[in-house]
């Protein structure tokens, strides 16, 4: 028996929705009946990824008279990108109910050799980009549409709670995303906007594919995870649907939900 559609009539936007976790969440939202927009960096290098995503969307929407899906290009590290993304979503679909701040970068580097350019790129994408895009979404949800309200989800990381020797520039940005969602929950609660963070553990995506291709390291990581496997992007889809659905999570805000197979509680 097919699962019921939980997001019919909702409009959702996902930053960095072309690959990995963002892609999985976007497809799950479409499956559950939402109208969905995804942002991506843009450029010819992404043509194949766009074609692949649209193919999967078309399969879900098979038989529909009109599509419930759009893509918008733009560099999330630029403050105006989030504003333009939200404006395009509202222009196309009329409102914004769910916003997922997912876009991010992660390049491992030795702390003592880390260049300012890598640090600045990581912060401007992961934290500044999340801040300005979330602000744009919140302004739409709180001040423009009627009635106000919505759900904002920040994709943080288990790295917000633990250290990483080659992630000294990355872990503070993910701690920042968690803190951003906590503070936004306080600031936006009066508008009926719920703000929560998802904290993925080790999820096999393009960001860590090279690192996890080492069989020795992969086996070590799997041995530390109580469920015995690395995560996959669709593992985040269910929690993201939960937080987007008012009927399921109407009193959940300011929360942090670990999606890590139990890794955090097993760290020694």
TrEMBL record:
<dbReference type="GO" id="GO:0006633">
    <property type="term" value="P:fatty acid biosynthetic process"/>
</dbReference>
<dbReference type="GO" id="GO:0048038">
    <property type="term" value="F:quinone binding"/>
</dbReference>
<keyword id="KW-0560">Oxidoreductase</keyword>
<dbReference type="InterPro" id="IPR036291">
    <property type="entry name" value="NAD(P)-bd_dom_sf"/>
</dbReference>
<dbReference type="GO" id="GO:0016616">
    <property type="term" value="F:oxidoreductase activity, acting on the CH-OH group of donors, NAD or NADP as acceptor"/>
</dbReference>
<keyword id="KW-0521">NADP</keyword>
<dbReference type="GO" id="GO:0019301">
    <property type="term" value="P:rhamnose catabolic process"/>
</dbReference>
<dbReference type="Pfam" id="PF13561">
    <property type="entry name" value="adh_short_C2"/>
</dbReference>
<protein>
    <recommendedName>
        <fullName>Short-chain dehydrogenase</fullName>
    </recommendedName>
</protein>
<dbReference type="InterPro" id="IPR002347">
    <property type="entry name" value="SDR_fam"/>
</dbReference>
<comment type="similarity">
    <text>Belongs to the short-chain dehydrogenases/reductases (SDR) family.</text>
</comment>
<keyword id="KW-0684">Rhamnose metabolism</keyword>
């Amino acid at each position: 028996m097919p699962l019921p559609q939980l997001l019919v009539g909702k409009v959702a936007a996902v930053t960095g929705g072309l690959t990995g976790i963002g892609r999985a969440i976007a497809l799950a939202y479409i499956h559950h009946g939402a109208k969905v927009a995804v942002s991506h960096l843009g450029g010819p290098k992404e043509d194949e990824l766009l074609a692949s995503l649209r193919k999967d969307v078309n399969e879900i929407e098979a038989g529909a008279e009109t599509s419930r899906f759009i893509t918008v290009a733009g560099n999330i590290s630029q403050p105006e990108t989030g504003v333009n993304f939200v404006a395009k979503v509202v222009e196309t679909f009329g409102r914004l109910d769910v916003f997922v701040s997912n876009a991010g970068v992660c390049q491992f580097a030795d702390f003592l050799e880390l260049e300012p350019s890598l640090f600045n790129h990581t912060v401007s994408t992961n934290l500044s980009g999340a801040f300005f895009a979330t602000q744009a979404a919140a302004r739409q949800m709180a001040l423009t549409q009627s009635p106000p309200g919505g759900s904002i989800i920040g994709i943080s990381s288990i790295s917000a709670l633990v250290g990483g020797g080659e992630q000294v520039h990355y872990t503070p940005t993910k701690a920042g995303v968690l803190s951003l969602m906590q503070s936004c929950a306080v600031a936006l609660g009066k508008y009926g906007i719920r703000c929560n963070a998802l904290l993925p553990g080790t999820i096999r995506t393009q960001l860590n594919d090279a690192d996890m291709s080492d069989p020795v390291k992969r086996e070590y990581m799997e041995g530390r995870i109580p469920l015995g496997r690395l995560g996959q992007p669709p593992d985040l889809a269910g929690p993201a649907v939960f937080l987007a659905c008012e009927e399921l999570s109407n009193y959940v805000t300011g929360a942090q939900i670990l999606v890590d197979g139990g890794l955090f509680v097993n760290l020694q």
